[in-house]
Design a protein that fits this description.
By secondary structure, the protein is mainly α. The chain has helices at residues 24-47, 54-61, 65-71, 84-95, 101-122, 126-142, 144-169, 176-199, 206-228. The chain has 9 helices and no strands. The longest helix has 26 residues, at 144-169.
């Protein structure tokens, strides 16, 4: 492993209360959460996800296993989690009446991409940073438990999107229209992940990665826009 230290927590969505106004208790909680994420991810990459236990992570962090589970309900969530505030931001963006559901989803994806690109730009060794992200993505891709956890995350986002789209359209979440709309919208998340993996090759500078990924996600969104842009006004039998 390189002697570089990766701030893996910085690659996640900002947490609720993470601003400078947070109290001492909140700052301590964020520090513990950051320690757990950074330590666990580093250990997973060095040894393999299945070869590291929560007990071992707790020992390195000098906390109890119970403390680890107080912050992260599963071992997999140390690597991939869906913060409540990100889920809330997603539902809020999709519910915004002044924008289409597609544009709402794009606003969330733009924020996630900005987070990644901002982190890459802040690293003193860009090639090393790209390699770190690539190794992280390979670990998720090659570990069955993490792949399953990722699918569960997407399912949670899809369920949340379905509820919002159902309300916007005056339909039931069990109706086919909100279901296919939600699945299509969350599919853009997977498009962005795949595009990021493709363009983070170490040859493109961060701004070019951003442009390439954004362009591909917009191409996918264009396929949805015609069918979803006026979806909020559609009622069964009135289209």
């Amino acid at each position: 492993m390189s002697s570089h230290t990766v701030d893996w927590m910085a690659l996640r969505a900002p947490e609720e209360g993470a601003g400078p106004a947070g109290g001492l208790r909140e700052r301590r909680k964020r520090a513990t959460r950051r320690l757990l994420v950074d330590t666990a991810t580093t250990m997973f990459l060095e040894r393999g996800f299945d070869a590291v236990t929560v007990v071992q992570i707790a020992e390195v962090c000098e906390v109890s296993p119970t403390t680890v589970f107080n912050y992260f309900p599963t071992k997999e969530s140390l690597v991939l989690d869906l913060p409540d505030d990100l889920l809330a931001a997603l539902t809020s963006a999709l519910a915004e009446p002044r924008t289409t559901p597609v544009d709402g989803m794009l606003s969330i994806l733009d924020g996630e991409l900005d987070n990644l690109i901002g982190w890459l730009q802040a690293q003193p060794d860009y090639a090393w940073a790209v390699d770190a992200v690539q190794r992280f993505e390979a670990m998720v891709r090659d570990t069955p438990a993490l792949r399953a956890h990722y699918r569960q995350m997407l399912a949670r986002m899809t369920d949340a999107a379905c509820q919002v789209i159902a309300v916007r359209s005056g339909l039931s979440p069990s109706d086919p229209e909100p279901q296919i709309a939600a699945s299509s919208l969350i599919g853009l998340w997977s498009v962005q992940v795949a595009s990021s993996c493709k363009h983070l090759d170490g040859h493109k500078p961060p701004d070019q990665v951003r442009q390439a990924v954004t362009a591909e996600v917009r191409r996918a969104a264009d396929l949805l826009n015609a069918g979803l842009c006026d979806f909020a006004a559609v009622r069964v039998g009135t289209a």
